[in-house]
Design brief:
The protein has helices at about 100, 110-115, 185-195, 195-205, 250-260, 275-285; strands at about 5-15, 20-25, 30-35, 45-50, 50-55, 75, 80, 85, 105, 120, 130-135, 150-155, 160-165, 170, 175-180, 210-215, 230-240, 245, 265-270, 295-300, 305, 310-315, 315-320. It is of the alpha+beta class and about 325 residues long. A hairpin with a 2-residue loop joins strand 1 and strand 2 (about 20-25).
C-alpha cells in the first residue's frame, strides 16, 4: 500500500534562496519547504505524502482552502513536495501513523454515471493497481542496478481490473468488484468494446486463471487530459493468478497484439538503471499525444522481479512535476 503519513528523518536542511523565513529540507526522495527553525538536521518528522487527504481537524485548518489535500506546490520559487509536521511521539522511523494523524490516500473520483453498481469488496485473490512512488523508496534503485528496465507513460484516468477465476469472468474498479450486468458503467463498456470476457476465458482455458489491468481514459474521466475523442482502455499489467506471476513487457505486447487490445505506450528502455535524478528529468519531459504534460512514467524490469524494499512486485511511478491534475 502506498505511503500516506509516516515517521521519517529530515535531512540536508538549508536556507531558502528567496526567503529568510523559510528553509528547505529533504525527506526520503522529496524536497520540502518549511518554516525556518522548525527542525534540526536529523529530526524525526511526520511526513505527509503528496496526494494525502487529512481529516478536518483544527490543527489542519490551514489546509481548508486546499480541501485538506496535500499537493506539490512552489513556495517563493522552490518546489515543496509533501508536508512535514513535528513528531512528538517516540516512534521508529518508517512507522505508519496515517490513522493516528487522520490521513488517507486521495482517490480520484469517477462520475456516478460511469462508476458502475457495486457487487462487493475488491477480491483478496487479486492485487490492486497501487503503484509505488520511487521517491518514497529510493533504496529500491539498488535492487535493479544491473537489470534491464523499461518505461511506459502514465495515463491519468481510472484503473480497471478484469479477471477469470474458476471459469468466472469478473470486473473491478480500483477498490471494488462491480456487477457484470451494469452495462452503463465505463468498466463494463470497455469490457464489451474489447471483448475482454471472451478473450480472457479463452486465455484461461490454455494458461489458467488470469488477470489483466489497465487504465480507462477519455471524455468525462479526470478531465480527459490526453484529449481522447472516445473512451479507451490501455493495458499495463497482466499476471497468472495461480502464483500471481506478473507478465513481462514481451508478454504484455504479445497478448495485446494477439487480441487487438491497446497497451500503454513504451517511452524508453534501459540496459542498466539510470540515477534517480535522470529518471526525474525524463519524467518531467514526458508529454501526451496532444503535447500536454503527461502525469509521469512507470518503470519496471523487463523481466518481472520481487522487491524486498517495497515488499511487492518491482514497479514504480515517477510523477511529472509539470503535470497539473
Amino acid at each position: 500500500m502506498s505511503k500516506v503519513a509516516t515517521v521519517e528523518i529530515i535531512k540536508n536542511l538549508r536556507k531558502h534562496p528567496n526567503a529568510d523565513a523559510l528553509e528547505i529540507g529533504n525527506v526520503l526522495g522529496w524536497q520540502v519547504v518549511c518554516k525556518a527553525g522548525s527542525y534540526k538536521e536529523g529530526d524525526k518528522v511526520i511526513y505527509f505524502n503528496i496526494d494525502s487527504v487529512l481529516e478536518e481537524r483544527p490543527e489542519y485548518e490551514f489546509l481548508r482552502a486546499k480541501n485538506f489535500r496535500i499537493r506539490p506546490i512552489k513556495l517563493r520559487g522552490e518546489p515543496s513536495q509533501g508536508l512535514c509536521l513535528p513528531c512528538s511521539k517516540d516512534l521508529e522511523v518508517g512507522t505508519d501513523v496515517s490513522e493516528i494523524v487522520g490521513a488517507k490516500h486521495y482517490e480520484k473520483p469517477v462520475p456516478m454515471q460511469l462508476s458502475g453498481q457495486v457487487m462487493g469488496a475488491f477480491p483478496n485473490f487479486l492485487i490492486k493497481t497501487d503503484e509505488e512512488n520511487l521517491r518514497n523508496y529510493t533504496e529500491a534503485l539498488e535492487e535493479v542496478k544491473n537489470e534491464s528496465l523499461y518505461a511506459t507513460i502514465k495515463l491519468d484516468g481510472t484503473s480497471a481490473t478484469y479477471f477469470v477465476k474458476d471459469g468466472e469472468f469478473g470486473i473491478c474498479s480500483r477498490n471494488l468488484r462491480l456487477k457484470l450486468e451494469d452495462e452503463n458503467s465505463i468498466y463494463a463498456k470497455m469490457a464489451i468494446k474489447y471483448d475482454v470476457n471472451n478473450l480472457l476465458l479463452k486465455h484461461a482455458e490454455k494458461h489458467g486463471d488470469v488477470c489483466i489491468q489497465g487504465e480507462i481514459y477519455g471524455p468525462g474521466i479526470q478531465g480527459n487530459p490526453m484529449g481522447a475523442k472516445e473512451n479507451c482502455f490501455s493495458l499495463f499489467n497482466g499476471y497468472k493468478m495461480a502464483d500471481k506471476k506478473y507478465w513481462g513487457w514481451s508478454d504484455i505486447k504479445h497478448f495485446c497484439e494477439k487480441n487487438s487490445i491497446p497497451h500503454v505506450d513504451l517511452v524508453s528502455t534501459y540496459t542498466h538503471c539510470p540515477s534517480m535524478e535522470k529518471l526525474i528529468v525524463f519524467a518531467n519531459k514526458t508529454m501526451y499525444i496532444n503535447k500536454k504534460p503527461a502525469e509521469g512514467i512507470v518503470i519496471r524490469p523487463l523481466s518481472p522481479m520481487h522487491s524486498n524494499v517495497m515488499k511487492k512486485n518491482w514497479s514504480v511511478k515517477i510523477i511529472n512535476e509539470n503535470y497539473e491534475d
